[in-house]
Amino acid sequence: MMQFMLLFSRQGKLRLQKWYVAHPDKLKKKITRELITTVLARKPKMCSFLEWKDVKVVYKRYASLYFCCAMEQEDNELLTLELIHRYVELLDKYFGSVCELDIIFNFEKAYFILDELVLGGELQETSKKNVLKAIAAQDLLQEDETVDAALREVGLL
Amino acid sequence: MPAVRGDGMRGLAVFISDIRNCKSKEAEIKRINKELANIRSKFKGDKTLDGYQKKKYVCKLLFIFLLGHDIDFGHMEAVNLLSSNKYSEKQIGYLFISVLVNTNSDLIKLIIQSIKNDLQSRNPIHVNLALQCIANIGSKDMAEAFGTEIPKLLVSGDTMDVVKQSAALCLLRLFRKSPEIIPGGEWTSRIIHLLNDPHMGVVTAATSLIDALVKKNPEEYKGCVTLAVARLSRIVTASYTDLQDYTYYFVPAPWLSVKLLRLLQNYTPPSEEPGVRGRLSECLETIFNKAQEPPKSKKVQHSNAKNAVLFEAISLIIHNDSEPNLLVRACNQLGQFLSNRETNLRYLALESMCHLATSEFSHEAVKKHQEVVILSMKMEKDVSVRQQAVDLLYAMCDKTNAEEIVQEMLAYLETADYSIREEMVLKVAILAEKYATDFTWYVDVILNLIRIAGDYVSEEVWYRVIQIVINREEVQGYAAKTVFEALQAPTCHENMVKVGGYILGEFGNLIAGDTRSSPQVQFELLHSKYHLCSAATRALLLSTYIKLVNLFPEIKNRVQEVFRADSNLRSADVELQQRASEYLQLSIVASSDVLATVLEEMPAFPERESSILAVLKKKKPGRIPDDVRESKSPQPNSIPAPIINSTNNTNNSSADLLGLSTPPGTTAPSAGNGLLDVLGDLYTTPKISPNTVQQNNIKKFLFKNNGVLFENDIIQIGVKSEFRQNLGRIGLFYGNKASYPVLNIQPELQWADMHKLNIQVKPMEPVIEAGAQIQQMLTAECIEDFTDTPSMTITFNYNNVPQKITLKLPLTLNKFFEPTEMNGESFFARWKNLGGEQQRAQKIFKAQGAIDLTATRTKLAGFGMQLLDGIDPNPENFVCAGIVHTRVQQVGCLMRLEPNKQAQMYRLTVRSSKETVSQEICNLLADQF
Fold first, then answer.
1. Mind listing the pLDDT tens digit for each residue in B115-158?
2. DSSP one-letter code for B882
3. Which residues contact B214 (CB under 8 A, 6 or more apart)?
4. pLDDT given at position B322
5. Domain boundaries, chain A
6. pLDDT at B831
7. Any idea where the AP complex mu/sigma subunit domain is (chain A) (predicted)?
8. A55-79: per-residue pLDDT in tens?
9. ipTM of this model?
10. Considering the entire predicted model, what is its pTM?
């Protein structure tokens, strides 16, 4: 089970955090701070896994962003790496070659996409097509609502 | 500003841009505070906000939270959004809640109501939103609220696949929070059969759920094995086009494969059904075969996914540990990875091989890779990979390769990273001991360890070498010669001086025949180090000197000179001063016979598990492979393997940390100051190592309210309590002494007599960070008098190892005493009145040590009764009076304690208006003085 996922920039700025275990806010901040420092201190050719406190950390850097997952001991490291990759692919497909700014400005979307992929710390759906379909359905609902609102405004509904 | 997707919130985008344009941290904070004030006034203002505005502000709050600021309002607005009929507003509401709302928030009832409504929705997207919320933040309350509904959703035929997927994981979350929510009976088979679901996404989600259920109740869910093997078999034999979108970079359904392989690791190999077993073996063979095929893609994703499945298959093979050919095949496969250019693969291969090394079937196969592993230890750029290599070398070591491996590890130690040195030292010490066929080799190795990495050689290591030398006659002369040589070095580590001092003190005579190491030379050599050493080492050396006096009377004068030196006889260190003066006297007064008796050679130590191993196990629980081979091929020359109880790592290690000493209770020499202990208590009061305060000695809390209740290497539990009348307040302070967080700490009260003493335990945080302390409050009300002492069972996880501590709480009847002042007249009047058989209790007991009236007095003063002076005709007697407060009554109580110095006995008499109270007070105080 995944305990949490963090996205942060090379400068150490947190871009997304998702916790699947309940920790007090203070502890979350402490973990975040320490882990970011630890990961940023590692050199490029180093192994993507590290034993850190009582979790197994799997991380990978994409351009300026680090994706970092804390897993339990029995979880499969390589596949966690690919889970991260799948998430990146989904973001990329959704935003059209995603960059850090997309995630900053549309952080809520990044959360929604993650929720379709991982739920309660467990992988929910690995099919790229199915996840994108779900997100498209959400967007469609929103657009309908926006159109409705516009129509209502001009008195057509 | 990049394009904003969906129904962009312009205000939000502007705000984010503003933040990004801030030139300094201060400017950013200023901008955020401005925004927070704005949002606050909007939320408080009298103009009602429409859904869009609420959504926008809630989103801004979320963003501010992500920047690392605390958000303490807006929760209500977010909850309002949940009941919006607009999906986009609802969705933001749920997002805010899953990111920011605590599971024990008072809003949880409102949230649950909204979730309920959404679960009823006809639109599956709304249903899913609600399910996702439960899966992300589900709590016990939610388990109660949705426990019946969600299982139905999961197995119902009309549920859409996407909803089923969410429902499975939702149920998993709730199950983790309250395991009783999963219905048994026919549900079991319906849940298991989800493994047959045609939709791969549903199977993927369901497998996680089933895995958790199996862990809880393996017997009930046993049927899943056959289904899981069947499903796995279909996947591994599928071509990559069969599974369409579930194929990931040409690997068919890697996630599901791994989950199924994990699921199977909950069981022993399916033996009842040979068909299933055969099919599983085929699957595993196929996975190996595919690993040998040329890659279908050069992308790292392809190889990662393929290898992920392979590693999981190897895990299963190691878990089953029943198919030699598969184990050997796994080993060969991993061997190839050891020289792969991907660091990740090398890391995992080393890790996985470490497990293979512990199987008797593959141990030999692992050993073939020794050269490469040694290279990894030396050459890897990443310390975590080097660490894995060290672990593997340790695991693959046996008596055929021990000398080489130990040699390589010693050589590497000179340049090893500081972070892994201490652990390496322990490992080398253990291997050297375990596989020594010739103990001179062992002595060499340990002395080399001290020379190379003296700072990292813990006490356990040098204690152990002394234990072994003392117990093995054949190595004593060699040891003496070797330490003597080692001490010739112009600079040597203090640990070397300690070992050298101890060994020469015992066996210096074995090398004294050689003029190069004559008694004088030995003594002067040791003494040349004396002034550079710490007080503890000097104390040890002083003991060595007196032992040398016994061995070589000819150097007596010279040694006496040293004892007489001002720096010793008048040392500021009281221990040194004492030793110097007492040894001096001993050397002057005692005849050679007496001296020889007092300073006789140390008796052999009882054989038991290496204390070093215990330290290593504690350092890295779970990472030290249990040695399965040892039982199968006992070492002819090895020390008999002692029985250790590995679950009991508190008590066991306490004894072992003392290293040299025998288990408590017998008078045995203890570390370093052997001579002193032979002389016994005459010289020193027994020293307690700080690590032995592990058991909570509840008795001492009879007389005090504050102190350390329990302590081991991980945790310290302190207590502070106060009592008024029949009420008490107890604060427990849990301190984490170790370097990892203590997780999931759960104290549970064990107390049957709630009707007599009612105890309320207040909740506390489940996590204690390394070095941190948390507190927990308990309140107690004494309803009527009670006898037993309540205890508390504390469970927690430390470094993934579950720990359990049971301790008595300092709650005894005397805590509810109110001291009562009275004069002699009224005391004796009452004393006589309470003279009935039913009212008094008496005990006569032997004093615990020499009778010490001052100490007794101090204790009694803390007991809770009033100590009454000048009342008893005999001034040495103690009399006390007090009232026990309970809810139902107050019980007056008088006590008299009469010491008899000649007989070293005490007589204790307690009188009160209630028989049970007299009895209990008498029982509590008996044997306490």
1. 999 999 888 899 999 999 999 888 888 999 998 889 988 988 88
2. E
3. B221, B224, B263, B266, B267
4. 87
5. 1-152
6. 86
7. 1-140
8. 999 999 999 999 999 999 999 999 9
9. 0.95
10. 0.69
Please tell me the distance from the alpha carbon of residue B329 to that of residue B281, in angstroms, as a whole number: 12
- Is B367 annotated to bind a ligand? Reply is no
CA distance B35 to B244: 48
Angle between helices A77-95 and B254-264 (to 10 degrees): 150
Query: Phi and psi for B862 in degrees, rounded to 5?
Result: -90, -5
- Mark yes or no for CB contact B384/A129 under 8 Å: no
Cβ distance B435 to B402 under 8 Å?
A: yes
How confident is the prediction for chain B on average, in pLDDT? Answer: 84
Between residues 122 and 141 of chain A, which touch chain B (CB distance below 8 Å)?
122-130, 134, 137-139, 141
Q: What is the DSSP letter of B816?
A: G
Q: Which residues contact B1 (CB under 8 A, 6 or more apart)?
A: A105, B13, B17
Q: Do A54 and B740 touch (CB under 8 A)?
A: yes
Instruction: Give the HSE-up count for residue B456: Cα atoms under 13 Å, Cβ half-sphere.
Output: 23
Cα B77 to Cα B59, B379, B788: the distances in Å are 11, 58, 52
> In this structure, what token pair is assigned to residue B643?
């029985």
B632 carries a ligand binding annotation: no
Cα(B647)–Cα(B617) distance, integer angstroms: 11
Residue B397: its H or E element: none
Average of pLDDT values for B815-820?
Answer: 90
Compute the 3-state secondary structure of chain B and give helix, strand, coil in percent, each to the nearest 5.
55, 10, 30
Tokens of B126: 């709304």
At residue B609 the predicted structure's pLDDT band, cuts being 50, 70 and 90, is low
- The pLDDT score that the predictor gives to residue B697 is 66
Token duo for residue B429: 């010490």
Number of Cβ atoms within 10 Å of the Cβ of B239: 9
Closest CA to A36 of A21, A22, A23, A52: A52
H-type helices in B300-396, by residue range? 300-320, 324-337, 343-356, 363-367, 370-379, 383-396
**B74 contacts B61 by C-beta, under 8 angstroms:** yes
Give the C-alpha distances (Å, rounded to integers) separating A88 from A81, A125, B1, B135, B446: 11, 14, 21, 22, 52
B66: chain A residues, CB-CB within 8 Å? 14-17, 107
pLDDT at B7: 52
Reported as a single tens digit per residue, the pLDDT across B590-603 is 888 888 888 888 88
Higher pLDDT, B617 or A111: A111
Sequence-ordered list of residues with C-beta below 8 angstroms from that of B902, at least 6 positions apart, any chain: none
Q: Is the dihedral of CA A42, A46, A52, A57 positive or negative?
A: positive
Query: How far is the CA of B531 from the CAs of B308, B573, B671, in angstroms?
Result: 59, 14, 21
Does residue B112 register a pLDDT over 80?
A: yes
Architecture of domain A1-152 in this structure = 2-Layer Sandwich (3.30)
SS3 content of chain A, % helix, strand, coil (to 5): 50, 25, 25
- Token digits for B521? 């030379």
**Closest alpha carbon within chain B to A107:** B63
pLDDT tens per residue, range B435-490: 988 889 999 999 999 988 888 888 888 888 898 899 888 899 999 999 999 999 88
Eight-state DSSP code of residue B920: H
Residues 6+ positions from A18 with CB-CB distance below 8 Å: A4, A5, A6, A111, A114, A118, B99
Chain A CA closest to residue B100: A25
pLDDT in tens, B343-392: 999 999 999 999 999 888 899 999 999 999 999 999 888 888 999 999 99
C-alpha B803, offset from chain centre: 6
Between B790 and B692, residue with greater pLDDT: B790
Asked whether residue B912 carries a pLDDT value surpassing 70, the answer given is yes
Backbone angles phi, psi at B22, to 5 degrees: -60, 135
